[in-house]
Automatic annotation (TrEMBL):
Matching InterPro entries: TIR_dom, Toll_tir_struct_dom_sf
Identification of the protein by name: TIR domain-containing protein
N-terminal signal peptide: none
One Pfam entry name: TIR_2
Length: 234
């Protein structure tokens, strides 16, 4: 498949599982597919599942298949009940590896009038020093965009929303749109507040972080730990 969507799907995948049987003819076709994938996209984790229910004389042993592909090969027989458990164990391993190595994007929602008080740029810069964070997106860092375009282009691709709550934020139309949109598309939200009465009522039950201006580093660390907890990355 030469479509851009197919390529994007592969590039955004944590792993690719290729299932083949162990017959020579099938392995040749599978290897062609494998070579095409490797040329088109960079995939860090590829798993070969070789089905050994074949009765053919041309069936190739697991070790030889590993040599041909240069990838870890899992041998199984589709007709045997225990093969399901083998497959599920590998999928669980892939999932755990993906989660442990995943980097995430955070979108910062705040009133520009609060930028200095909350030290938004400092918080973003310090959070980005953590290896698990890919980027912290906030509008003032990308002033070339209209704020609504920035929201539209970035909010959906982020993993979590950091909402800085204040009286200014309550009166800010963009901030209101950001957290309501995040809520609608089921993005995790962390309210960051100085006083609890500034948290929107709809978000009052969500775990948040109290902003301590006199101890900004402790606040940043609390935000980071809560991000990991909300995203199940602890």
């Amino acid at each position: 498949n030469k479509s851009k969507g197919y390529k994007n799907l592969l590039e955004n995948s944590d792993a690719v599982i290729i299932i083949t049987n162990s017959a020579t003819t099938n392995l040749q076709n599978t290897h062609r597919l494998y070579s095409e994938l490797k040329q088109k996209v960079e995939i860090s984790n590829i798993y070969i599942f070789a089905n050994f229910q074949d009765k053919e004389q041309t069936a190739i042993e697991k070790e030889k298949i590993e040599e041909i592909f240069g990838e870890k090969t899992i041998a199984l027989s589709a007709v045997k009940p225990e093969s399901k458990e083998v497959l599920m164990n590998v999928i669980e391993q892939i999932s755990n590896t993906a989660i442990s190595g995943k980097k995430f994007l955070a979108f910062v929602s705040y009133a520009t009038a609060d930028s200095e008080f909350f030290e938004i740029s400092k918080i973003a810069k310090k959070l980005k020093k953590h290896s698990r964070i890919d980027d912290i997106l906030y509008w003032e860092e990308a002033l070339k965009d209209d704020i609504y375009d920035y929201m539209n282009n970035n909010l959906e691709s982020c993993d979590i929303l950091l909402l800085f709550c204040s009286k200014n934020a309550k009166n800010s139309e963009p901030v209101q749109m950001e957290w309501k949109t995040a809520l609608k598309i089921k993005k995790p939200i962390i309210p960051i507040f100085q006083t609890e009465d500034t948290i929107p009522p709809l978000l009052s039950t969500k775990l948040g972080v109290q902003f301590k201006k006199y101890d900004i580093d402790a606040t940043i660390e609390q935000i980071y730990k809560l991000i990991l907890k909300k995203l199940d990355l602890t």
